[in-house]
Design brief:
Layout lengths: L2 H22 L8 H6 L2 H6 L7 H18 L9 H4 L14 E3 L5 E3 H13 L7 E2 L2 E2 L2 H4 L5 H14 L6 E3 L8 E4 L7 E2 L6 E2 L17 H13 L2 E2 L6 E2 L7 E3 L5 E3 L16 H16 L1 H6 L1 H18 L7 E5 L2 E2 L6 E2 L2 E5 L5 E2 L1 H7 L2
Antiparallel strand pairs: 1-2, 3-4, 5-6, 7-8, 9-10, 11-12, 13-16, 14-15, 16-17
Length: 364
């Protein structure tokens, strides 16, 4: 086997491990010697000589094709046999019997599908399991999961499918099992795991023969929400705080509404953004792109870029369909707050910068 082509194959394996770590939020290792060698133009010119091993040559062509798709805007990738047979998360080539096709057309290998479901169990913002804003059909992907994970997801799905303000949990501190919804409940709810009875109205331990008073903690939370001018989602009644961006809110239950008045989006006459928050968003994004050293060295350029970005946000803040391009360099995902040291995906329209998982499975 030619040594150069062996290097290419080994670099491909290193890229695969790196992609899996990136999609799982694991710590990323430094580039291997093989990966650095593939970035050397002199070495790449040596690959022009045909490989004596056709199988290795085919793998090398695939790795180069995959690299070219990762540097192009995602929205401009043309449909092709190579793209349609790759996992959208890790980039692995897929066989029909080892893949899952989402309603949007993206394909997942079974490993990445399993990782997504596992992440959803611990991160409610990923529920319902979705890709490109379209929920995955449970009856289609559940049979592809290991039985233990499938059971855990089905149990958690019952909880996550219940509006947050209606969820009742066992008040035994060593149990805390989800008991169900308080809506339509006539009497105390009894935990089948430990036998603790809970009042569905105040969500505290049952208080027979005593008048129920609404949970003081809930009252305090609602008072704080009023004081801080937080909004309540009209869909699931979760309390939401606006940190940055426009007033177009998309809750984790997928309800879209106006943050000012809580009516369905674009069914009111409220302003669509807060000027102060919009300007802060522009500053943060430009600083992420330029880097703190560049900002300090060229404050005039930084300020001009901020003004230009703020003007862009005023016209494109309400992005209904993101169009992604890759931006190299370390930065923090604006959705999940994970720090990615190598690259993020940036929307060409609204400028939001996110990781691969959030671009596919969290945002609409």
């Amino acid at each position: 086997m030619d040594e150069n082509w062996l290097t290419v194959a080994q670099a491909g394996e290193d890229d695969h491990r790196y992609a899996l770590a990136l999609s799982n939020g694991a710590e990323l290792q430094a580039q291997s010697a093989n990966q650095r060698l593939l970035e050397d133009p002199a070495f790449m010119r040596t690959l022009a000589t045909p490989s004596p091993d056709p199988a290795i040559r085919d793998d090398a062509v695939f790795e180069r094709d995959l690299a070219s798709t990762m540097t192009a805007p995602l929205s401009t990738r043309p449909p092709s046999p190579s793209t349609s047979s790759q996992c959208v998360i890790c980039g692995d080539r897929l066989r029909a019997q080892r893949s899952f096709r989402a309603p949007c057309g993206d394909q997942y290998c079974h490993g990445c599908l399993r990782d997504l479901v596992q992440a959803t169990i611990s991160d409610e913002s990923l529920y319902p399991v979705r890709c490109c804003g379209r929920p995955l059909v449970e009856r289609d992907f559940l049979p592809l999961l290991p039985s233990a994970l499938r059971t855990r997801f089905q149990i958690k799905s019952r909880e996550l499918g219940t509006p947050a303000m209606s969820r009742v949990y066992c008040q035994n501190p060593i149990c805390s099992a989800f008991l169900g919804s308080s809506e339509g409940s006539d009497g105390d709810m009894v935990c089948t795991a430990c036998g603790t009875a809970v009042c569905p109205a105040c969500k505290q331990i049952a208080h027979r023969r005593e008048k129920c008073v609404e949970n003081a903690a809930i009252q305090d939370l609602r008072a704080l929400a009023r004081d801080q001018q937080w909004q309540t989602c009209p869909g699931c009644h979760s309390i939401i705080e606006l940190n940055y961006g426009c007033y177009h809110m998309t809750c984790r239950c997928l309800t879209q509404f106006c943050y000012v008045c809580a009516v369905p989006w674009k069914n009111c006459l409220c302003r669509q953004w807060d000027e102060g928050r919009l300007y802060i968003t522009a500053q943060r994004r430009v600083e992420e792109e330029m880097g703190p050293r560049a900002v300090a060295a060229a404050p005039d350029i930084f300020q001009r870029e901020v003004e230009a970005r703020a003007e862009q946000l005023r016209s494109s803040h309400d992005c209904v369909r993101h169009s992604w391009r890759r931006r190299n360099g370390g930065a923090r995902c604006e959705e999940c707050s994970w720090y990615l040291r190598d690259y993020l995906l940036v929307c060409l329209h609204c400028g939001i910068a996110v990781c691969v998982r959030c671009s596919r499975n969290r945002l609409l």
